[in-house]
Design goal:
The structure holds two protein chains of two kinds.
Chain A: E1 9-16, H1 22-35, H2 40-61, E2 71-79, E3 82-89, H3 113-120, E4 123-128, E5 135-142
Chain B: E1 2-8, E2 11-20, H1 25-37, E3 41-52, H2 54-69, E4 74-77, H3 81-89, E5 97-98
Parallel strand pairs in B: 2-3, 3-4, 4-5
Antiparallel strand pairs in B: 1-2
Helix pairs in contact in B: 1-2
Classes of the chains: A alpha+beta, B alpha/beta.
């Protein structure tokens, strides 16, 4: 971690809920983390966690609406050395109790995204989405 | 994602290039799986892949398992440091054939 990572900063951006938006989500995150002077190693991990969360919105919250024109919002805030990433979407309500990764020793395709998020972040919290949002996910990481 | 395939004898070498995420996994499967189905040994060169997410890891697992079914193997070659880190996070470094 760089000393400059303490800088307080907030940025948000919306993206069409499509798998083709994931590269734009990553680009946005990389730009913000560049401004926050977060080191490459941590930056790679955070970008992965954020992209996995965005992917979950596309894959699960909009499972039945692949051609939606809805947008999701990703907000990155850094305050007092704590990074908070918010995700807002208007898809199918997420039941937090059902968000589980597969057993890591049960080798099969799928079920790793949530595991990666939990490995990388300090906290994963589903909050009540305030209108117009349905889902509001917050990931936090102490820098 | 772009790719290049070279074949020599029973070995198909697939070079993937770019970032492997959910958006390109179907394309990656379309490139890799026919060689496995044909019983070829697949060398998957990832030297130009700097980012891979859980969807990309799923392609590696599926390729590996498909190869076992076909009595052949997929060897992952020249994996970049950043992708190796994701493979290790998934605890797959002892499962997949890495060279």
């Amino acid at each position: 971690m760089s000393e400059l990572a303490h800088t307080n900063h907030t940025e948000k951006k919306d993206f069409l809920v499509r798998s083709s938006s994931l590269k734009d989500v990553r680009s946005f995150c990389r730009e913000v983390f560049e401004k926050l002077h977060i080191d490459q190693n941590l930056k790679d991990e955070l970008v992965l966690a954020i992209a996995e969360a965005a992917q979950n919105i596309v894959k699960h919250a909009y499972k039945d609406s692949p051609d939606t024109e809805d947008k999701m919002v990703v907000q990155i805030s850094c305050k007092d050395n704590k990074l908070q990433i918010g995700f807002y979407d208007m898809g199918t309500p997420v039941d937090p109790g059902k968000v589980k990764h597969r057993e890591i020793d049960n080798i099969k395709p799928g079920g790793l995204g949530t595991f990666f998020i939990q490995q990388i972040m300090d906290a994963v919290e589903f909050k009540d989405g305030k209108k117009p949002w349905i889902n509001h996910l917050v990931l936090t990481k102490q820098l | 994602m772009s790719y290049k395939v070279t074949e020599e004898g029973n070995i198909a070498t697939v070079h993937l290039d770019g970032e492997i995420d959910m958006d390109v996994t179907e394309k990656a499967k379309e490139v890799i799986f026919p060689h496995i189905d044909a019983g070829k040994e697949v060398h998957l060169n990832l030297s130009n892949v700097q980012y891979m997410d859980s969807s990309g890891i799923s392609v590696l697992i599926e390729s590996h398992q498909k190869a076992l079914e076909k009595n052949t193997k997929v060897i992952i070659k020249e994996v970049s440091k950043s992708v190796l880190k994701v493979i290790m996070m998934a605890k797959l470094e002892q499962i997949l054939n890495l060279e």
